[in-house]
Write a structure and sequence with these properties.
- With 315 residues, the chain is mainly alpha-helical.
- The protein is built from 15 helices and no strands.
- α3 (63-87) runs parallel beside α7 and α8 (160-180) runs antiparallel to α9 (186-214).
- The longest helix is centred in the middle third of the chain and has 29 residues, at 186-214.
- It is globular, with a radius of gyration of 23 Å.
């Protein structure tokens, strides 16, 4: 006997549809988080650079402010990453690596990525104001304006694009100083500025070298550069960063205890040379990937941090 279809007979279909819906939402949420590139949040730890150099990093009273600066740059950078991927979706689909990004691959719908990007950028700029950190709000806002302009227009201008991207690293370091009211030395600014330019030009050089070898499509921002020009930029920037750091170390290494600062030139220079080796061989991608993916570079970086921190503590 055939039973009449009642209200209970439709429940399995409704439940199954609900499961599919929840699964689809979960997949989009995961894709959104991936599109925000949490792996690249590591570069936001540059907010501790100024407190480290000033010897105040171990003061627990400033950790809250530094955490706020770190969080705001994570939000701002994530909004910029989403915006950049939205604007570059067609070219990313032709790139051998970037075609797997959430937006380019279709895993993250455009209708979700656009409002998410806008909300992240607005929160990053407005929340510090609400919490009473106007200087941090100003720096984050400058970062957002520069990076949005980069995504829309400036990334197509040779040289300017290198300066804008490297400015993002510098602004992170400045934000860490501003949020806890630590003065910045001229040497610190020089090292950060040219160190950032070295990493950005090195990444461009490695990417162009890699794409030329694989025969893949290249981005418009790379078409204006030759390998020789990019090599000149990252070589010059590395040299200036090393000289500026050395002069800074000699200046603050006054007492015998603080001579550790002078000793720190050795691991700093060695790390710079190792990073340059990664650039020259075409293996320098994003700075955080380059550092974490190279054991020698990571060890040299840790040694430098320990020596420099000890020197500052004994100063």
């Amino acid at each position: 006997m055939i039973r009449p279809a009642g209200r209970g007979a439709r429940k399995p279909d409704t439940t199954l549809a609900k499961i599919h819906e929840d699964t689809a939402i979960a997949r989009v949420a995961v894709a959104l988080i991936q599109g925000m590139r949490p792996k690249q949040w590591l570069k936001n730890t540059l907010v501790v650079a100024a407190p480290l150099s000033a010897g105040t990093l171990l003061d627990p009273t400033i950790w809250g402010e530094l955490a706020l600066a770190f969080a705001m740059f994570c939000l701002a950078a994530s909004g910029v990453y989403l915006l950049n991927d939205l604007l570059d979706v067609e070219s990313d689909r032709l790139h051998p690596d970037k075609k797997s990004r959430p937006i380019a691959s279709g895993r993250l719908p455009v209708r979700v990525a656009w409002p998410a990007s806008i909300i992240l950028l607005l929160v990053a700029a407005a929340l510090p104001v609400v919490l009473g950190y106007s200087s941090l709000a100003a720096i984050v806002s400058i970062y957002i304006v520069l990076q949005v302009a980069y995504c829309i227009w400036l990334k197509h201008l040779a040289v300017i694009d290198l300066l804008v991207v490297s400015s993002g690293f510098l602004l992170r370091a400045i934000a860490g100083a501003a949020v806890i009211d630590v003065p910045l030395s001229q040497w610190f600014l020089l090292v950060m500025s040219f160190g950032s330019l070295f990493m950005v030009a090195g990444k461009r050089f490695s990417e162009k070298l890699h794409l030329a070898a694989s025969g893949g499509a290249t981005r418009r921002s790379l078409e204006s550069y030759s390998l020789s020009y990019l090599r000149f930029v990252w070589s010059l920037s590395a040299g200036i960063a090393l000289v500026a750091y050395s002069l800074w170390a000699f200046e603050i290494g006054g007492s015998s205890a603080a001579n550790l600062t002078t000793v720190s030139i050795v691991p700093f220079g060695a790390a710079l040379l190792r990073y340059a080796y990664s650039v020259d061989t075409g293996h320098a991608g994003a700075p955080e990937d380059t550092v974490l993916g190279d054991r020698q570079l990571l060890v040299l970086g840790v040694i430098w941090v320990l020596v420099f921190a000890a020197a500052v503590a004994l100063r």
